Amino acid sequence: MQIGNREAISIRIPGGPDWLAADDEHVYIMRDEGGVDVLDPATGAVLSSIELTGHRCQGLGAADGSLWACSGADERSELFRLDPTTGDIEARVATTKAYEQGHLIIGFGRVWVLLGDGSSMVGIDLNTNAPGEPIPLPIRGTDLALGSDGVWVVSAVDNAAVEVDPDRGVAGRLVEGLDRARVAVEVPGALWVGGAVASYRVDLATSAVTATVDGGVGTDGGISADAGGIWVRKGGVTLQHLDAATGAIIEEISAEIGTGGDILVAFDAVWVSFHNDATLLRIPLSY
What we know:
Blueprint: E1 2-3, E2 6-7, E3 9-12, E4 17-22, E5 27-31, E6 36-39, E7 46-50, E8 60-63, E9 66-71, E10 78-82, E11 89-94, E12 105-107, E13 110-115, E14 120-125, E15 135-136, E16 143-146, E17 151-155, E18 160-165, E19 170-176, E20 183-187, E21 190-194, E22 198-203, E23 209-214, E24 222-225, E25 229-233, E26 237-243, E27 249-255, E28 263-266, E29 269-274, E30 279-284
């Protein structure tokens, strides 16, 4: 199907396809009805499915040779470490993961999880699968992003982002004034934050907001990055491709397809999920 000037692949995935993640071999998508699909990065075809038991729980992450997903709710939630090749559950970690967190960030030897109402977070060791000590936060986090020097916590409640030192286990610099900050991605020299009505470029050297781009991610969108740009997704298919250094709009793509979901840049493509429409799009980066 044609999306903007690109020939996209549309993949039907029943069960509420939502959160996206990728490693060096595959793209993964978590279904709201429970379970994770392993996708061919070239075609989007479902290679295998891993079913999870329990109530719906947001959260998916893949990196450093591990795949993690969430199942259950509130005090009964668990993180599952999965083998994407066999579908086996390699570990189960009980946690009170914050419901709204959709991206299970993996870095610094741990998978990172917001706890409870988002007022603290914890890292689970990839070697032992054991959680460390909770880290208090100065904001109520709603999602996480991996940085070069730490883990970023964004808060749609407190309109802010804070950088957490993973080794010292303490919160560091705080950036405020980010209206309903929902998601973020770090690129060289900057943190880009997707708010409900605007996207913000935060300069890493000064912690100042150096660009504000109208649009944002709404209440059900996302943000990702390619080699030199930022992809902002709002609602169905409303995409902004921004210059990562200046915030200038490179292109805008819009199509009437469906509701919101996640966005991910991986394997030379932009992946866009539609959780209420059983659809996943693979849009090539090149025309």
